[in-house]
Amino acid sequence: MSESPIFTQLIQLLDKHNARYRVMDHPTAGKSEEVAKIRGTQLGQGAKGLVCHVKGNGIRQHVLAILPADKQADLSKIANAIGGTRASLASPKEVDELTQCVFGAIPPFSFHPSLKLIADPHLFTRFEELAFNAGTLKRSIILNTEDYQQIANPALVDFIRTDE
């Protein structure tokens, strides 16, 4: 399998920090539930990445928002946390430019200076390991949660949708 540039960057970053992780090759899966089953992980261990565009109040910021795969994002909470008035999902073209990945393959790390990394705190409280697609839909990394938080150092923002 040829290496994607993002996968190579991820492995170099994790090795540099002596992270506890493993790589898993697997068939392409379209949904978080399917890939969790293939990985042998819980759905909530999945670190889902959403590329958002925050605007308003003079703010124009792209954000990579990371949350557990079994939760949904409240985009208005992301906008408020960044200082904007509204947030939307980025276009496929913007996602490609900012992450060099297709939808569903975005790892929970930002390698682009214009892409601010945030994570919901719930990501760090439930499981000892996180699982995510590693720049491709056919390869995952399962990474120690504490190592992820220390290496990626995302800004912590409560943005999980709560339906009352």
From TrEMBL:
<dbReference type="Pfam" id="PF04073">
    <property type="entry name" value="tRNA_edit"/>
</dbReference>
<dbReference type="InterPro" id="IPR007214">
    <property type="entry name" value="YbaK/aa-tRNA-synth-assoc-dom"/>
</dbReference>
<feature type="domain" description="YbaK/aminoacyl-tRNA synthetase-associated">
    <location>
        <begin position="26"/>
        <end position="150"/>
    </location>
</feature>
<dbReference type="InterPro" id="IPR044786">
    <property type="entry name" value="PROXY"/>
</dbReference>
<protein>
    <recommendedName>
        <fullName>YbaK/aminoacyl-tRNA synthetase-associated domain-containing protein</fullName>
    </recommendedName>
</protein>
<dbReference type="InterPro" id="IPR036754">
    <property type="entry name" value="YbaK/aa-tRNA-synt-asso_dom_sf"/>
</dbReference>
<dbReference type="GO" id="GO:0002161">
    <property type="term" value="F:aminoacyl-tRNA deacylase activity"/>
</dbReference>
